[in-house]
Design brief:
CATH topology: TIM Barrel
Helix content: 40-55%
Number of helices: 11
Number of strands: 9
Distance between the termini: 32 Å
Largest sheet: 7 strands, parallel
Number of domains: 1
Length: 223
């Protein structure tokens, strides 16, 4: 394996990835701006969204290098190629596909594959994942994450799937390196990006980051 890509700096710094998923991508640029204004600078655009790749490129160009914009639901090598061609800075998947992971690693691109069991986590890590997405996290909750961390403390885990703004600290306390949050942050602002809705997105982003910064594990890591 080539050298493992480092974690996306914006994810490593803020400990949160915002997941932008919608029926279509028309409202995502406005939501991305609102999230960035609130301090969340690691954004995943899921490929299940109609027009995702065009939106990814537009958001990346508009927000600049301070905001990391990646592609989610990358489950094939073709998905990966298309996402990278659109300018994705990282790849996220709900599954472990070693071909996708190794291809990203060979190109120096962080990949965050989804895993649930110790075997899946280990397989993803050995293939070159920058971190492993525990998915779906809420099925087993923080207790499951804590159990995975015990034998695999060297693998950074990102808790994704059913993680609410009010539960982020629970996963970080259990040993997650970061969390991924979608609809609890957006709350329909992607479908109706009115100023009030976008302002609420920014406020929730700030509230979430304040809670993350107050987590003992995050405070300890920054000393």
């Amino acid at each position: 394996m080539t050298e493992r890509p480092a974690l996306t700096p914006q994810l490593d710094r803020t400990r949160v990835m915002a997941i932008l998923r919608s029926a279509d991508a028309s409202g995502l640029p406005a939501v991305a701006r609102a999230l960035a204004e609130g301090g969340i600078t690691c954004l995943e655009i899921t490929l299940t969204t109609s027009g995702a790749l065009d939106a990814l490129a537009a958001i990346r160009d508009e927000l600049g290098p301070g905001v990391a914009v990646g592609a989610g639901t990358v489950i094939t090598t073709r998905d990966a190629r298309n996402a990278l061609a659109a300018g994705a800075g990282f790849l996220v998947a709900p599954v472990v596909d070693t071909e996708v992971i190794r291809g990203a690693a060979d190109g120096g691109i962080p990949c965050y594959p989804g895993a649930w069991t110790p075997t899946e986590v280990s397989t993803a890590w050995r293939a070159g994942a920058a971190a492993v997405k525990l998915f779906p996290a809420s099925t087993g909750g923080p207790a499951h994450l804590r159990q995975l961390r015990a034998p695999l403390p060297h693998v950074p885990l990102v808790a994704v799937g059913g993680v609410g703004v009010d539960r982020a600290r629970d996963y970080l306390d259990a040993g997650a390196h970061a969390v991924g949050i979608g609809s609890p942050l957006l709350r329909g602002a992607d479908r109706d990006p009115a100023p009030e809705a976008l302002g609420a997105v920014t406020a929730r982003a700030r509230t979430l980051l304040d809670a993350i910064r107050a987590t003992p594990a995050v405070q300890e890591a920054r000393r």
